[in-house]
Predict the 3D structure of the following.
Amino acid sequence: MEIPVVRNVLEANDRLAESLAAIFRAKGILCLNLMSSPGAGKTTLLERTLSDLKGEFRMAVIEGDLQTDNDARRVAATGAQAVQVNTEGGCHLDSGMVLDALKSIDTEGLDILFIENVGNLVCPAEFNLGEDHKISLLSVTEGDDKPEKYPLMFHISSVMLLNKTDLLPYVDFDLERASAHARKLNAEIHVLPVSCRSGEGLDQWYGWLRRARATKRG
């Protein structure tokens, strides 16, 4: 039996998400919702992406976290626009938070908006933020059974980035097993092994970004 309060919260969020999606469509902005557990490497991925592609795209980031502006300061150091949203203990961002944060971003001529969600493998997957794609990160230090244990996040993601591949010699992680779990949930998911530290595999990620941006531009 569905709990009415939960249903009402999700329905209210979805209405605002539709408004956000309409804004992104009208302005031609590719919006990506980055999700992972804490420490998987979302901020490091953004630092590399923003630095490597800043001559190609105009990008901005909405940073979601429980407390502090540490990640927003790291992102802003690349020269990209960054807005911090502190959830004060909340386990995810919602559409209202994103809509408020968007007021602090100059969206004119913006190509890509990244939303770095709160580190959590459950709640962020349940809340639509008006994004074009959900992107999940899975670190090889976490275990290759995470897609099987947390199926919703990987079922709804367009891309799964398997991060920290430079640590594979030192951890018990099977890339093929993790990929198989994810593809069983979502046959269309793009699985991209990367190392944000060494740069290995990032060209594949950048290629996917370019194609997604071109599709958004129409």
User: Anything to note?
Assistant: The helical segments are 4-27, 42-52, 70-76, 95-102, 146-149, 151-155, 175-185, 202-217.
